[in-house]
Amino acid sequence: MTAPTCEIRLTVNGEPVSCTVEARKNLVDFLREDLALTGSHVGCEHGVCGACTVRLDGAIVRGCLVLAAQCDGARVETIEGLSDSGEIADLQAAFERRNALQCGYCTPGMLLTAQELLRNGGVPSRAQIREYLSGNYCRCTGYQAIVDAIEAVAQARNGGAR
Amino acid sequence: MKPAPFAYRKARSLDEVIALLTEHGENARLLAGGQSLLATLNMRLSAPKLLVDINAIDGLDRVVRKDGQLEIGALVRHATAERAREISELAPLIARALPHIAHPAIRNRGTIGGSIAFADPAAELPACLLALGGEVELTGANGRRAVKADEFFKGLYQTAIAPAEVLTAIRVPAATAKSRCGFAEFARRHGDYAMVGLATSAQVESKRIAEVRLAYFGVGATPLRAKNAEAALVNGSVEDAIAALARDLDPPDDVHASGRLKKHLAGVLLRRVAHELVEQP
């Protein structure tokens, strides 16, 4: 049997896209395989690791737990879009400065998750940062440097000196 | 892994959903938030032929106060519910439980109705519905019917939802000045399913518990009420209530903990929550 397909039209990082996709294809595979946006990574494929985190209509989601077919009419943003727009340039610089990544596999998901937390406003406590990141696994850093980087950016964005 | 092939339909009305479920029977599954369903499909634990996406159906994402009850539409997402003032004021138990569900990216998609319909025995919301003595609204070809939480959870992932019915809302009694609630769980990491959890609601009169419902999760095939412990709490003894748990609960061993450990932790949770119930303003 040939797998059923769907027609979808959406915007990805501000650009209109229309495609025919297999109904069973998840959003992160669609982004990587059909649009060559390989910054979003595929880890566990069942919603545990957070490597596939992308923004859907302004809120972060698991790219492996949303179907591309469901994104007809939606607005999707990936690490490529957030990088190009400069929206998270300060977070990226802080991650580099504090060695908050080693292999980098989790980093796009970490950045998108951190940005959503920081967009909620205020300076979150370290415990709140850890709780928000609880669904993003990093197997290299032990998380300390990641929390440091996010805390520093939260303070800087709120006018604190660091 | 990748899911087995399936067809996808975005339904525009409940009538369309019910017609599709009637036509396709067990080959069709409803897709709401998808945060449990798509994970199980990716692992090929099931292979439906058709997914019926209900996200575009109007009117299922409302939170409304109605005749002393709070009605929460099935498509209200966890993250929306966390921010809803009606829920924190009128169903504070649910507000307390929501942050324990998975992680922000999952709560942005996952729905209240999906959590109840999926009926994971270790999940927070089914236990909250049971603790609050709430009900679910099911819609089928013959209209709507309400099923009490006490009769809704039938077995492991099994509920009272009939084959061509859709869970369209949940309703819980709106909290009053006499209402108290307590919530606690043990999980190895924040956002994991609990090893053991406890959702409670009570009516308090002059610092005494007049009525209480204790709903444990992660201790059996469904969320479970500890009725002997409830009676002991109404009689005024937390220690008797903890002792009574031995008659109420018989948790099986699972990958998270032995049954014996779960039983012990159930008592620890009850001690914490019981104090909360009488000390709340």
Characteristics:
heterodimer; A: 162 residues; alpha+beta; five-stranded mixed sheet; 5 strands; 36% helix; elongated; B: 281 residues; five-stranded antiparallel sheet; four-stranded antiparallel sheet; 12 helices; 27% strand; globular
Q: Give a quick account of the main beta sheet of chain A: strands, pairing sense, barrel closure.
A: 5 strands, mixed
Which chain pair has the greatest contact?
Answer: A-B, 35 and 32 residues
What helical percentage do the residues of chain B reach?
A: 25-40%
Structural class of chain B comes to alpha+beta
Oligomer: heterodimer
How many strands of chain B? 14
Rounded to an integer in angstroms, the radius of gyration calculated over CA atoms of chain B is: 19 Å
Distance between the termini of chain A: 60 Å
Tell me the number of helical segments of chain A per DSSP (H or I, 4 or more residues long).
Answer: 6
> Mean of residue pLDDT of chain B?
96
Low-confidence stretches of chain B: none
Strand order of the largest sheet of chain B: 4-5-10-6-7
Shape by Cα distribution of chain A: elongated
DSSP summary, beta strand count of chain A: 5
Helices and strands of chain B, in N-to-C order? EHEHEEEHHHHHHEEHEEEEEEEHHH
| Range of helix content of chain A | 25-40%
Major β-sheet profile of chain B = 5 strands, antiparallel
* Rg result of chain A: 16 Å
Please report which band the strand proportion of chain B falls in: under 5%, 5-15%, 15-25%, 25-35%, 35-45% or over 45%: 25-35%
